[in-house]
């Protein structure tokens, strides 16, 4: 089976390391925010996300993306 992957270019913030646009990637197991130019990235396990959103009627995209940005900026600032 072909692995499905979603890739979205983010426009709200740039890479803390090189200033390039960041991308959001979802693959079969994780959601990533990273830089295709310099390779900086963070990721979160989809099981962890599933636990966070359990019982919630809406999917908290902002929280999840902001959390990933925060982790990325802590690692690569
Ligand atoms: Zn970069």
Ligand set: zinc ion
H/E topology pattern: EEEEHH
Indicate the overall shape: globular
- Note the beta-strand portion: 25-35%
| CATH third-tier fold name | N-terminal domain of TfIIb
Descriptive account of the structure:
The chain has a single domain (6-76), classed as N-terminal domain of TfIIb (Single Sheet). A hairpin with a 3-residue loop joins strand 2 and strand 3. It contains two helices and four strands, in the order E-E-E-E-H-H. It is globular, with a radius of gyration of 13 Å. The chain is an alpha+beta fold and 77 residues long. The protein is 31% helix and 32% strand. The mean pLDDT is 93. Strands 1-2-3-4 form a four-stranded antiparallel β-sheet. The longest helix is centred in the C-terminal third of the chain and has 16 residues, at 61-76. The chain has helices spanning 46-53, 61-76, and strands spanning 6-14, 21-26, 30-34, 41-45. The site of zinc ion has 8 residues, from loops.
